[in-house]
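Re: Re: token formats

Sure, here are both.
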Amino acid sequence: MDYLNVSTASATGNPRNKTALKPGRSLMDWIKLTNSSKDLSGNGNRLRDISSEELAQHKNKNDAWLAIRGMVYNVSSYFEFHPGGEEELMRGVGIDATDMFDQVHKWVNYESMLKKCLVGRLKTDSMLPPVKRPQGKPAVGKDLSMPPPPFSSLSASSAGMVTTDWMQNSTTVTIVLYTRQKGLDARRISTSIDGNFFHTRVYSDDWLRCYDYQIRLAEDVHPFCKPTVSLTTGKVELVLHKKQIALHWQKLGDTEEVCQGFKPLGQAPPFFRRSVLTRKSRVNHNVFLCTLTFPTGQNFHVPVGWHVQLKLCLEDGTEVIRSYTPVTSTLSSCETTDCPSISESPTALHFLIKIYANGPFTSALDRLSEGSSSIEVSNPIGNFVGSQLEGKNLIAIAAGTGITPLVRVAIDVLRSNRRVSLLFFNRTQDDIIWKEEFRELELKYPDTFKSWHVLSEPDDEWPGLRGRISKSVLAATILSEDYHDVGSNFACVCGPSDFTLETLRLLDSVGYTQETVHAFSG
């Protein structure tokens, strides 16, 4: 499942100082407007590069542009929908408003909220051509005892840059990245060793930007790399183990380009790693649990609520890519290390995938046998921030395979001994994913887990709830007296777009706000 936070959070303002909106200017009204044919960007959706000087010229209410993480948006149409008020939004107009935005809700998916308002990309120094590695005499790896370059020698303008170094001894080669990103930890470093090809991606402390480095190494190394990170300086050390001990490398390897610094995650080039389909078991009549296992040399972490892209090459040579959110291999993973939410480097990922007869990706997947190495997996993508759930109980509302992004979120909440209330919509009994597993989870955690199943096309023997998402269904379940406590709840929603929009409308009507709801797109 892909992700989408449809919060109405302010681009720059304080969400605790909200302004009453006029009738017809609610969250749902804004979503309807962005789904209409109206040109909200003012440029016919023809994207182009915008200079800081040009951005500064658009600083009036009727001609209001602002920039967030390198992208420029025309927010002229958003003023009446902005819950923080016009004055707050005007603070970010005509400038790069990234810092103001991050002070409020840096996890909010503004890219979805303002996608129809996108004018283009903000031209900055970071958009200069990549630095080419000199073609002269290759550098020789330094001895490990040599000190790193001092930070004091760096100019203030290079604060966002990443510099690299390397060193060696008789058994190892160490690549050093000076990221200057305080607060990094090993989970934010992904690495891939495939033969003599080495790739690493470093995510910023907020996961919203990344730096990529890749090189064809001069000599072979063992497929193992454990990153070491300094939380205070952002220094990353990547130790590679030589296959030929005592061989002195004359150079690290060949790189066509060296990236200058961090860039917004959405602008980063895709990177895929090989996998093997080691398990494909049927969950119901059209959903399979697929396990993809990674060869030694792959190190990465998928944050809770994030997804990856799966790439599959069809018989005619075309490539098909689809987004899926990892789940656990079983709901009993609440008590094991199988759940990737606590694994910094999973050796395998598990996916619940619905097979569509006419779907090019899933129909090809259906034909694959266990042992196939046809599927490649991307680095993680997303914007969900788990800290939103700290101290909160979870209200999970899903339809069909919309359950997938909610599985790991729910398990994390249960592990924290907080309550999970699941409202799960399906068409028939046969469509319910993990029906028995959810029932067993209720028996195991009677005080902290409760689920309701609602069918839109039940048979006569169905004893449970019937119908579609509605206020009456919510009133009988998550809005009942035992569960309706907006102040202590956080709601996550996932399903088809119509289902999600109606659910958000109903939650909004009973007091849930942008701070207490996250919607994943189905």
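Second one below.
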Amino acid sequence: MVAFELEVPNLLGRRSPHLPCPCPRIFAQDLQPTGYMENSVSYSAIEDVQLLSWENAPKYCLQLTIPGGTVLLQAANSYLRDQWFHSLQWKKKIYKYKKVLSNPSRWEVVLKEIRTLVDMALTSPLQDDSINQAPLEIVSKLLSENTNLTTQEHENIIVAIAPLLENNHPPPDLCEFFCKHCRERPRSMVVIEVFTPVVQRILKHNMDFGKCPRLRLFTQEYILALNELNAGMEVVKKFIQSMHGPTGHCPHPRVLPNLVAVCLAAIYSCYEEFINSRDNSPSLKEIRNGCQQPCDRKPTLPLRLLHPSPDLVSQEATLSEARLKSVVVASSEIHVEVERTSTATPAPAASAGDDSEPSLIDCLMVSPACSTMSIELGPQADRTLACHVEILKLLSDYDDWRPSLASLLQPIPFPKEALAHEKFTKELKYVIQRFAEDPRQEVHSCLLSVRAGKDGWFQLYSPGGVACDDDGELFASMVHILMGSCYKTKKFLLSLAENKLGPCMLLALRGNQTMVEILCLMLEYNIIDNNDTQLQIISTLESTEVGKRMYEQLCDRQRELKELQRKGGPTRLTLPSKSTDADLARLLSSGSFGNLENLSLAFTNVTSACAEHLIKLPSLKQLNLWSTQFGDAGLRLLSEHLTMLQVLNLCETPVTDAGLLALSSMKSLCSLNMNSTKLSADTYEDLKAKLPNLKEVDVRYTEAW
């Protein structure tokens, strides 16, 4: 039976204005035996509610007994009559309990009334959120108005209302009361037995913590209470496992984003005092500039500038380019020490009108010319940070959660103070490593920045980044996985050459094979224009055995390419059906194909892997891949290198929009067959707009047909 909105008709069948059930009064009429109810009768004035059941009684009527008489309410049918009957009874009881619990005298009586109230809500045939929420709000108001209760009374009340919390979120004031209980008695059995199902329901069903932030705060305090138990993080780990479920895929899609939201809010709170003190302490820009600019703001926190010692003064006298400055900002919770050491030529001063804040890397870069920040948190903040970072690490261990977690963390949703905190970045490194080790592109691509001009985890954990503490080992693994799946190889190499060439050469000098391969690719693709830089890269490669070997192979490939171009070879070539990638590789390595213009691989078993051989055919103009397993990855590689291709047959290949969109860079295409592919209409229109020379197109048996 569901709750209703009360519509009060008269005995003649005329209906009154539409009135909702929660309205504090119903309407009655005084003078006429039938008609509209015009004068109000309060719910508290109703002495009794009965169903008319005697013989020849009016159909579908309720009898309300009030002081001085009775009122009959006639419904249209028995279902509506029963709805009115149960709703009126429920409303009468709610008013009764509000009155009883508003002036408590003996708490044993109050507890008994609360239990009766809960039983009434649980046994009500009405189905409406207010049926269970109203008792919770009554108890919430009772607790907020009586703050002198004992701990045992608190626990008795929590246990009494526990059945209502199984299917309902606690109201905000009740959340505040639960938070207080978690902080004051984290080892209480109430936390495990009563709060656990409540928090589980919040994480599974909550849609927006922004509408009720106290639900998030309660979840955070509950997790911290679990961490205070003897087993500590083991209990938290079991709780996370229970939220994920025993299968390989979590059946509750809201659990992960809700857990991440709780962790982000908790981590932010650890640095909140320092963040709020920005107006009274050196800003990140001032820290970066050594606090040389005067500050006339009145500090409310202890602020002390440490002057250089005499030894350092004498050192500055002898080394005019070396400087050491320290800033200490202390508060009750946070101690920040900033040391600045510079042996490089100072950067040109900013223009007088440039007040823009520096970028994240500019503020927090760890290099000889930038600030090194060491943040120490108070004991409670430190425990909170450790607990919630550990939860992020646990979340990253689940394969089904990792893609969504990487996407949620890609924008780096942490304050700059956290990224400047060595302990935080060291612990979070485990999560970034899990992203870098994941073979799925949707995961490891989140290491890159969200958009151009923004910093990503790739920058933060690269040599010179604020979070790098391993001489570039994580950076090398990130480069390796990104290069393995990155279809814009040249663009990625250009980015490395512009921003990370020094770290790449340093790691290659130390024998890192990934970095040696990167330097060889830079030379092979002519990424580096400067001759001196090229010579330096060559010297770096020749300094290690692995570098020498790869550089010799590069030289062989370059000579073979030049020889192919010089000697020429056949202009047309067709491989037998069932040929494989290995067959094509052996064929192309056995002779000279510098003049090859037309290549047919139709009905062979080649895949995208053969693209690395096809791009070495400089004169190729026509390529037939009909009914092969050539996919998006190979198509992307072709679009980068074979820009002069004129005819391309992709009929019955597994290519999709993701790869076909890359063809927009092949401006020479005049004939394109996409018959029986996964081409969409939008992609087709995009290709037509970007390929001006396209004359012949086959899109049969696609969405664009």
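The radius of gyration is 36 Å. Residues 78-102 form the longest helix (25 residues).
- S.
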